[in-house]
């Protein structure tokens, strides 16, 4: 019974052979899920950095050029 709990079987010579803990498909799925969790963690960190300082991630040319071009358009009319 102790052999069954440790996950090994006896061969013809009497030496224990370990039973594989995970199959190849389970290992591949485990690695894929682990990579997804790492990607999720990176996205969460990036989102919190944007929430804490939103203007550092935005290029300044997107709003300063707009203000410089259209500043006098509404004042003339």
Automatic annotation (TrEMBL):
Transmembrane stretches, start-end: 28-48
InterPro entries named among the record's database cross-references: Cortexin
Main location: membrane
Recorded GO CC terms: membrane
Keyword Glycoprotein applies: no
Alphabetized UniProt keyword annotations: Membrane, Transmembrane, Transmembrane helix
Subcellular compartments: Membrane
Record PANTHER family: CORTEXIN-1-RELATED, CORTEXIN-2-LIKE
Name of this protein: Cortexin 2
Species annotation: Cyprinus carpio carpio
